[in-house]
Structures are given as C-alpha cells and as structure tokens.
Design brief:
CATH architecture of the largest domain: 3-Layer(aba) Sandwich
Strand order of the largest sheet: 8-7-6-11-9-12-10
Number of helices: 12
Number of strands: 12
Helix content: 25-40%
CATH topology of the largest domain: Alpha/beta knot
Length: 252
C-alpha cells in the first residue's frame, strides 16, 4: 500500500478527471464510490485498476476480507481532504475504486431492452438493476441516454453495471439492421402487454417519460404495447413501467 498526501499527485489528478464523462470515454475508465458495489464486483470476478481508501474507512469497514486478494500495488491510502476533492458525492464514502469499461457484446439468443433517450441517470440505473433482476441481460442505450458510468447511474444500478451486456448505439443503427421484431412500450396506445404473447427473441424499446419514443423508432416497430392504467394518470415513470413490463413477460 502506498500513501498519497497531495492533490497535485498525478494519480489524484487522473481520478478528478474521471468525474467528467469526456475523460471517462477517453480513458475507458470509471469510478465507483460504494463499497457494497465494489465488493460485489470483486467477488463477481471484475478486477479493478486501483482502489483509494481513507484511514478512517480502513478502521471502520470490513475491507480486510477483500484486501488479501488485491495486490498492494493497487491500494492507495488518501486523506479526507483528497477524498473530498475527488469524490462526486456530497458525503464522500472514504473509498474510490477505478475500473476499466468492459462493454460486452449482446447475446443474440436473448431478447434485448433498447433505451431511447432515457436521460435521467437515476432512472437508467434503476432500469439496469431491474433488467438484471428479471433476467434480461441485453441492454442497448442510444446516444440520447444518460452516461452509463455517471455516479448516479452506478449508485442506482448497483453491481448490475458489471453483469449486463450493455451496448451503446448511434443513429438507431442496431434497430435499423436487426431482423428481429421491434416492440415499443407506449404510454397511451397499443396492445395490452398482459395479454401479449412475445416471440422467443425481440427488441423491446422504452423511451423517456417526458418525450416518449422517437417517431423514427415508431416507424421501425412491429407493434406498440401498453400497460392498462387508470385514466386519472397520464403515464408511469419509465423505470416503473419497465418493471411492470418485464414482470408480465416473465410471468408468462
């Protein structure tokens, strides 16, 4: 383990840069500040580039269970001032792990959730976690979606960020080039999902709550599907709607 005591240290400057989406993309790396997520990722076999810890964190957390399996060269001790300088949290956790982005290819034998303009990182993270919970491992995010590696996305997604096949798409290329049927989740019209029989493989598209699904996506769709909800409410939050859709699909 090495101690770092200055915010001018090159490693600390690197961490600070990774709080910005631009630098995450350039370096193909991202930060996680939740120890539960870090521990779950570790025991799932997802290796970190490095981990930064405060002395206080070491005293009060069960890091010893993981420390024995992490090379000393990857462990750095920082003080509270540096932690606050680097952290994206209002109350820093005392631990920051760095990971390489590891985008996996879609499993072509499984259905795929396609996200069209889901711009809220909390919603995106919840969708990722819910998809994993219901066994939907393929996720496509278009260029209008929130950053997958935003700290708020990761906080909501938990370790799902490490376990799903998450792919980025631009200009609807994936939808335009697939031979699989495309279904869209519509807030107002379409077939009732609770009575719909899905084929073995397909794309299921969800849009943002505020803008819905792009008209260009609708032109590619085979059918629109909806949830039967009260007329007193216009629509559901996209992450809630997705949870109901996936429950209905798995129920059958």
């Amino acid at each position: 383990m090495k101690h770092i005591r200055s915010i001018e240290n090159q490693k600390i400057k690197y961490l600070k840069k990774l709080s910005q989406s631009k630098y995450r993309r350039e370096n193909s790396s991202f930060l996680v500040e939740n120890f539960v997520i870090i521990r779950d990722a570790f025991f799932s076999g997802y290796e970190m580039e490095a981990i930064y810890l405060t002395e206080d964190f070491l005293k009060h957390n069960k890091f010893k269970e993981s420390k024995e399996k992490i090379p000393d060269s990857k462990i750095f001790i920082i003080d509270e001032k540096i932690n606050k300088h680097v952290s994206g949290l209002s109350t820093p956790s005392g631990v920051i792990a760095v990971y390489k982005m590891n985008e996996k290819a879609l499993d072509k034998k499984e259905p795929t959730i396609y996200l069209n303009g889901v711009s809220d990182p909390g919603n995106l993270g919840t969708i990722l976690r819910t998809s994993l919970a219901f066994g939907f491992n393929n996720i496509v995010c278009d260029e209008k979606c929130a950053d997958i590696y935003n700290s708020k996305t990761i906080s909501a997604a938990k370790d799902a960020i490490f376990k799903l096949n998450i792919v980025k798409d631009t200009n609807l290329d994936i939808l335009k080039n697939t031979k699989l049927p495309i279904y869209i989740a519509d807030a107002n019209e379409g077939l009732d999902v609770s009575n719909f029989s899905f084929p073995e493989n397909y794309f299921l598209v969800f849009g943002s709550e505020s803008h819905g699904i792009d008209s260009a996506v609708k032109l590619l769709a085979k059918d629109s599907l909806k949830i039967d909800i009260s007329e007193k409410i216009e629509s559901l939050n996209v992450s809630n709607a997705l949870a109901i859709f996936l429950y209905e699909i798995r129920r059958k």
